[in-house]
Amino acid sequence: RPKRRGMRARPALTPPGVRNRLERDFTALEPDSKWVTDITEIKTGEGKLYLCVVLDLFDHRVVGWSMHHRQDRQMVIRAVQTAVWQRQGDEPVILHSDRGSQFRSGDYQTY
Questions:
Q1: I want to staple 82 with a disulfide (CB 3.0 to 4.6 A). Which of 18, 30, 64, 77 is the partner?
Q2: 72 to each of 20, 31, 38, 57, 69, how far by Cα in Å?
Q3: CA dist 84 to 2, 8, 33, 44, Å?
Q4: What phi, psi does 18 have (nearest 5°)?
C-alpha cells in the first residue's frame, strides 16, 4: 500500500456576510480590540492533540484556549468562550481566523 501524503489545504470559502476586517493590520492600539485565533496539532506519545488559542494582538497575550483530541467546532467555541469570559470591558472586539472549516461552521458563526 502506498504511503499516504498529508492533507492539502483547500482555499477557504468566505461565508456570506463575512469579510476580512483586519485587512492584514495585525497591530492593536488597546487591549481586547483585536483577537486572532488558530488551531495547532501537537503530537504526543499517545496520539495527536489539537490546541485552539485566542491571542490579543495588543500584547500577544493568550486570552482563551481549548484542547481536544479532535479538532472540531466545539473546541473552537470553547476557546472563544474562555476569552470572552475573561474580558474586562464590553466594547466590540474583532476576532480574526484563517476561515478553516471549524471557524466557518454554523455553530461558530451563530456564537
A1: 64
A2: 22, 28, 12, 24, 9
A3: 46, 32, 12, 29
A4: -105, 125
Cα 51 to the center of its chain, rounded Å? 9
Element housing 76 (H / E): helix 73-86
Q: What is the pLDDT of residues 55-85, one digit of tens each?
A: 999 999 999 999 999 888 888 899 999 999 9
pTM assigned to the model = 0.70
Domains and their CATH numbers in the chain: 34-110 (3.30.420.10)
**Cell numbers standing for residue 26:** 495585525
Distance CA 104, CA 109 (A): 7
